[in-house]
Amino acid sequence: MQPQPAIFEEHEIRRVYDEATEIWWFSVVDIIQVLTQQPDYQTARKYWNKLKERLGKDGSQLVTNCHQLKMTAEDGKQRLTDVATAETLLRLVQSVPSPKAEPIKLWLAKVGYERMQEMADPSRSLDRARETWQKHGRSEKWIQQRMTG
Question: Where in the sequence is the domain holding 88, given as residue range(s)?
Fold first, then answer.
């Protein structure tokens, strides 16, 4: 599984694609950070921990449907991070009162549509990767090395 961060309103959302199951896994804390409009990652993480606790007490299956994968943290280290599928995130978004809920739902639908396009035409994913790296300021040489292995 290769990390492929996505951008939502200038926020980087960490995600990985599992080719075996053809499922995108998104960082729950990254989504919570956008929903709660928290500039601080740690505050968003604490919010998620409280929400997770509350949902667990209510018997919600949302927490059960979340998994943990290693993702690159703010400090550059690989750390276990709560992740969820787009379907689970759509349900989770409804648990957080936020004006950002509807834009996130639309964004998740767009991400799903893009993946369907990439499955039909794999060259689209290469084009998208190149475009993302250019936005991140990577040099053409760096991009070419990355794409050719």
Answer: 2-148
**Strand 2-3 with 67-72, pairing:** unpaired
Cα 41 to chain centroid, rounded? 14
Pairing mode, strands 67-72 and 78-84: antiparallel
pLDDT digits (tens, 9 = 90+) for 81-111: 999 998 888 888 888 877 777 888 888 778 7
* Secondary structure of residue 121 in the 3-state scheme: coil
SS3 16: strand
Domain count, the chain: 1
Give the Cα separation of 63 and 134 in Å (integer). 36
DSSP 132: H
